[in-house]
């Protein structure tokens, strides 16, 4: 057991947060989709409602290592459904549509009542943020025990289509002054439309602000 813990700690310390920024070649971006959506993604501006409210977590020491938990997210309330759908239909890694900027809001508005009814049947919203928070709390507690050299650890939730958005999570990570960070996908498999989309969001964020990660 001690050998396994040591091996895990050594492997964990080797991870590094290295999104590719200006001047990168496509070959250096293995998550790039080959459909043409990736080309559009590299020039797409980062559009999100910025927030300065940090993600609520128990009081801890200043974090040294951050784990960005990537997922698509889900609306917590019925009122968030339309914005969720609009961001989803605007994602060119997920789908490409003609005049997508105009068509996506139209489709989202048409689909909202039906999707709201589906969420109403399961309690009025998605439980994914709640469960991601519980997983994150358990994860950082275990990591602090297994790898004290990289502790304290802090998790950050980065959703693609609802708050906290991936871009908002990155901003909080930069403000926290982390020494290192790991992008940890929560999708069960790799796909350009899931993990690829989340990694592209990280790429676009740093490409838009024109700076390299400080962590």
TrEMBL record:
InterPro entries: Ferrochelatase, Ferrochelatase_N. It comes from the Eukaryota. Transmembrane segments: none annotated. Keywords: 2Fe-2S, Heme biosynthesis, Iron, Iron-sulfur, Lyase, Membrane, Metal-binding, Mitochondrion, Mitochondrion inner membrane, Porphyrin biosynthesis, Transit peptide. SUPFAM superfamilies: Chelatase. It holds the Pfam family Ferrochelatase. The keyword Membrane applies. It catalyses: heme b + 2 H(+) = protoporphyrin IX + Fe(2+). GO terms for biological process: heme B biosynthetic process; protoporphyrinogen IX metabolic process. Its EC number is 4.98.1.1. The keyword Iron-sulfur applies. This is Ferrochelatase, mitochondrial. It comes from Mus musculus. The lineage of its organism: Eukaryota, Metazoa, Chordata, Craniata, Vertebrata.
């Amino acid at each position: 057991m001690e050998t396994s813990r040591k091996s895990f700690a050594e492997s964990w310390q080797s991870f590094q947060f290295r999104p590719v920024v200006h001047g990168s070649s496509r070959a250096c971006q293995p998550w790039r989709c080959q459909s043409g959506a990736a080309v559009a993604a590299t020039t797409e501006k980062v559009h999100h409602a910025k927030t300065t409210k940090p993600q609520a977590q128990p009081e801890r020491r200043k974090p040294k290592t951050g784990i960005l938990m990537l997922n698509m997210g889900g609306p917590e309330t019925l009122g968030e459904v339309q914005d969720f759908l609009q961001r989803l239909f605007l994602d060119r890694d997920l789908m490409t549509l003609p005049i997508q900027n105009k068509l996506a809001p139209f489709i989202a508005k048409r689909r909202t009542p039906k999707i709201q009814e589906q969420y109403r049947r399961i309690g009025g919203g998605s439980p994914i943020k709640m469960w991601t928070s519980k997983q994150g709390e358990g994860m950082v507690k275990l990591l602090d025990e297994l790898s004290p050299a990289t502790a304290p650890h802090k998790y950050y939730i980065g959703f693609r289509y609802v708050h906290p958005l991936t871009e908002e999570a990155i901003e909080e990570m930069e403000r926290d002054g982390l020494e290192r960070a790991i992008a940890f996908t929560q999708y069960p498999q790799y796909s350009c439309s899931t993990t690829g989309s989340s990694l592209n969001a990280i790429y676009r964020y740093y490409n838009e602000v024109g700076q390299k990660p400080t962590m």
